[in-house]
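Handoff note, outgoing to incoming analyst
You'll be picking up this chain. Sequence as last confirmed:
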Amino acid sequence: MLAIHHVSFLITDCEISEQFYSKVLGLEPSKSRPDLGFPGIWYDLKGLQIHLIQEKIPYHMDFIPEHGGRDRHLALSTKNLSNIINKLEQMNISYTRSKSGRAAIFFRDPDLNVLEIIENLER
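Most recent structure output, in case you need it:
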């Protein structure tokens, strides 16, 4: 294996997800996504792609862990975690801090997919 190429999340509405990923993470949809016969959005992020795939009912989940760190998730790094926290608070999006004490937070997108943001000052 060489590297992670992409991560996929199931979503229910491309418009709602595009607004979320644009406003919260500052991502712009990729123009490289071909017509795959179903709605979705791709994002390019420094050698990694995020694929959002629209489905009518992505999952029936009887159990959703309270803390995102105990759920499947995508972890992204940032140089300024406080900027993301400020955005989340302004948009009334709840988050939890890492239980390990690291400078990291977890929050969910509109379809309950978990995102972790880790402060990484070295990159």
